[in-house]
Amino acid sequence: MKLTQVTFVIVGASLAGAKAAESLRGNGFDGRIVLIGDEPDPPYERPPLSKGYLQGKQDRETIFVHPPQWYAEQDIDLLLDTTVTAIDRHQRTATLSSGERIGYDRLLLTTGASPRRLRVPGADLDGVLYLRRVGECEAIHRTFETSSHMIFVGAGWIGLEVAAAARDAGVKVTVLEADAFPLQHVLGPEIAPVFADLHREHGVDLRLGVQVTEIIGAGGKAAGVLLADSTRIDADAVVVGIGATPNTQLATDSGLQIDNGVVVDASLRSSDPHIYAAGDVANTYHRMLERHIRVEHWANALHQPGTAARSMMGERAIYDRIPYFFTDQYDLGMEYAGYAEPSGYDDVVVRGDLSLREFIAFWLADGRVLAGMNVNIWDVNETIQNMIRSGDRIDRAQLADPDLPLDQLTSK
């Protein structure tokens, strides 16, 4: 395949899509690149939407992956406000919402994920807000300025980050969560209470183990919620953050293998050797974990496209980075590396002080570190990742001892 004579199509003008285009050009691909997105804005990063940009600490132009002119300078065809309606795998064409068909030699899906919708009466009222796109972020920020009380349904990462931003803006906040703790699925009952205490200390009315059965309206606008126990809570707006689902409809319609995302191998190749996937939509085989995982975090969208780009160009490339994410809420900063399912670990070790929120938590199975989270302690995450990669059994007492340097506890 002479690369100067081929066309690579990237469906999804996201961070992952933009980084794939950048990597293709950076690795010497000089064929045609078409980057297609259904939003009016060029590719942007999503973490600022629940952090700095939402809080008014970042200007709008800082969220974009590249300046708008970069795409023309790199000879990348950027098609915005455009949807890919169909993929013909036999003819290797992508049909656009305009009716145009674009032929491809390789196609990359970076279509991301969409917020899971709340399915209760009143969920379609004005003032019921979700956060995924920049316009939704701006709508929530405007709501901070006009609301005295906001309700957040769901105490996951997005819900808690936006709730923290609302409190920083002086808004009264109620957070409703069906589980016994916020972030329970990720952190487990051992560490999740740290975030419950954090938000309550900052004035959040955090209600756990509750179920929303209706969003109450007044004049066509959300005015509160009704809980399963008949409790009514009045508010000016409702923000829903109950998870996300991968945008796989296009892949499903084209007959690709789907299982909690587009199933791809360690090289990001799908069940069709001419189609790849990266970012939130990709359920990727991870060689170290020896299983497929789908990770909805910024680091994946940032790094996976480089592997996909090299694979598309015919190189042997494997994605095996340790999953990583971070959060900032009030005065708490955190990094998490690794992968520990709720039933996949048998011990949690804490180094430091949970009450002061300065600690490192480790999730272990059979004495081996599966994941680690450093809270308000810095410059240790790379060491934590090395511990995970090593697979070494580590003495529990040594792991908990803050006087023993972490990098001396593993052979790698």
> What kind of assembly state do the chains in view correspond to?
single chain
Kindly identify the CATH topology of the largest domain: FAD/NAD(P)-binding domain
Give the CA-CA distance, first to last residue.
40 Å
- Count of helical segments? 11
Which structural class is indicated by helix and strand composition? alpha/beta
Largest sheet: 5 strands, parallel
Instruction: Examine the secondary-structure arrangement and name the CATH architecture of the largest domain.
Output: 3-Layer(bba) Sandwich
Number of strands: 26
What percentage of amino acids are in beta strands?
Answer: 25-35%
What are the segments in which pLDDT stays under 50 over at least 5 consecutive residues?
none
Name of the level-1 CATH class of the largest domain = Alpha Beta
Helix content: 10-25%
What is the CA-based Rg, rounded?
A: 22 Å
Q: Quick check: average pLDDT?
A: 96
Structural notes for this entry:
With 412 residues, this protein is α/β, with parallel strands linked by helices. It has three domains: 3-114 and 245-312, 3-Layer(bba) Sandwich (FAD/NAD(P)-binding domain); 117-242, FAD/NAD(P)-binding domain (3-Layer(bba) Sandwich); 331-408, 2-Layer Sandwich (Enolase-like, domain 1). It has helices at 15-26, 47-50, 69-73, 134-146, 157-168, 184-191, 193-201, 249-253, 298-312, 381-390, 396-400, and strands at 7-11, 32-36, 76-79, 84-88, 93-96, 101-103, 106-109, 113-115, 128-129, 149-153, 172-177, 205-208, 212-218, 221-227, 232-234, 237-240, 244-246, 262-264, 275-277, 282-286, 291-293, 324-329, 332-338, 347-353, 358-365, 368-375. The strands form seven sheets. The chain has a five-stranded parallel beta sheet. The protein has a five-stranded parallel beta sheet with strand order 9-16-10-11-12, covered by helices on one side. A five-stranded antiparallel beta sheet has the order 22-23-26-25-24. A hairpin with a 4-residue loop joins strand 5 (93-96) and strand 6. The longest helix is centred in the C-terminal third of the chain and has 15 residues, at 298-312. The protein is globular. It starts with 6 loop residues before the first strand and ends in a 12-residue tail after the last helix.
